[in-house]
Amino acid sequence: MNNPIKGAEWLIKTSLPADTFIPEDFNEEQLMVKEMCAAFLDTEVLPVIDRIDKMEQGLMPSLVVKAGEQGLLGASIPEALGGLGKDFITSTLVNEGLGGGFSFSVAVAAHTGIGTLPILYFGTDAQKQKYVTKLATGEWKGAYGLTEPNSGSDALGAKTTAKLSADGKHYILNGQKCWITNGGFADVYTVFAKVDGDKFTGFIVERGFEGFTQGPEEHKMGIKGSSTVQLYFQDCKVPVENVLGEIGKGHIIAFNILNIGRLKLCAAALGGAKRTASLSVVYANTREQFKQPIANFGAIKNKLAEMAIRMWVCETALYRTSKWIDDKEHELLNAGKPFNEALLGAAEEYAIECAILKVYGSEVLDYVVDEGVQVHGGNGYSDEYLVSKGYRDSRINRIYEGTNEINRLLTVDMVLKRAMKGKLDLMGPAMAVQKELMSIPDFGAGDDEAYAAEQKLVANFKKAILMTAGAAVQKLMMKIESEQEVLMNIADMAIETFNAESALLRLMKLSASRGEGAVAYEKAIVQTYLYDAADRINKYGKDAINAFADGDEQRFMLLGLKRFTKAASFNSKEAKRYIANKLLSENKYPL
Length: 591
Known about the structure:
This protein is of the alpha+beta class. Helix content is 57%, strand content 10%. It has helices at 28-45, 49-53, 59-69, 88-97, 103-112, 117-122, 125-137, 250-286, 298-334, 339-349, 351-376, 386-394, 404-420, 427-437, 452-476, 484-514, 520-548, 551-564, 572-586, and strands spanning 142-145, 161-164, 170-181, 188-195, 199-206, 212-214, 228-239, 243-244, 288-289, 292-293.
């Protein structure tokens, strides 16, 4: 990549299609991995999905072992530790490929993510050899104990304590953890506790340690087949060699692992959405009403097309970011950084994008399953149809890995902090936007270039963010942290803009390689998304501006916002019918 984009720099820099990784760039090996994941779900998981939901004893752990035998648990683990040593894009593809497996997907994602990565990235060589080698194959299953009954989003408010024993050989843990995925059958847990009351620290706890017990399985709204229990520590003896990382540095483990987890959650949600969309397409083609398939009706086509648009855009933003993380990891490795520091540093660099993806991916899945039930009508409410299971299972995604509200607030908070530290130059571009607003609009520059209007619109979206966020910071100063509604409005503007730019870059890259005549489907998706995004960004911007500005300042900014979100007239109905007809003709959404 000639001009690598650092975290959040897309907001102030122009990205080039040639420098943008898109799903059509997957290599042959990556496509084979994706197919292997799909085949595993079709042959091993979906035929027993009802048994999984009934929590048949031993079934889920046995499926995790089978996934390990096929190498699906160790994609990102180095070969020296029993993994496949594949790149970040490939490991992300595994998460997407297994994402349509309902509760199984949750178990595997928890095992390979928060169950394994803390030890892989922060463990000593001895800890990695002892635990990661077994986690990579599925011989041992992993879980993660962070959340407590009174500390959800406020993870550092944990009450679990750890005290060094008199002989100095053990830390004695006391407290409890809740909502622990895989907790009922895991063999090894990363657990966080406060040493001496204030030093937040990670520990590796094995099943069978003295003083460690678990509660009964929780009865949940969805993901019923995934094990979710409370963990109890009553004078639990953890050997001192099982301290993970440094005493008092547990927050570094917790927050860095969450960055990766958020992106991987987006991938899994995307995989689930694609399979649900395909169920809806097949049903629409086969269900007849008024003597014809319901697929013939515009109202149904509109739903299917909107599903396709959101999934295609989500997929685009996901793999654009995955390649950035992969490139940054290699850059840090080449600079002499150890393996763990390289990937953690790469994920930290793009923590803002990971938060954006978590929000968007989970909300895309929620949209797809909700409209999927609607396409199925009354049958969608029946447990005989998988779409009802998908509907229930989806809801948790907006809560764990940080609620979507927390991730929206983090998105803006991280951008502002980087700007204040001089890592991101927002001041210059923001001042340029102010200057532009005082001048006569430019109505025609660059109109001969391919996709010139679309490029200008995306550039204007960025200006709308800089104008709104800049004014909010100036006006609210230190009070901005308490104005969560304004921050979430700005975050939504950023999410829409990152998605819009990612989608346009993918279209432009495809158009350059295939020719514009061969990208009619993709063009319909991008143009519809941009057309709708303009209205959404305008609404988010208005709500923010009206919350902190008044009088002439308010009128001036609203006029600027209107200028920056003005999209040309576009027949989205016809575009959506075109998109839907392609899905219906293929009788699926392509995985």
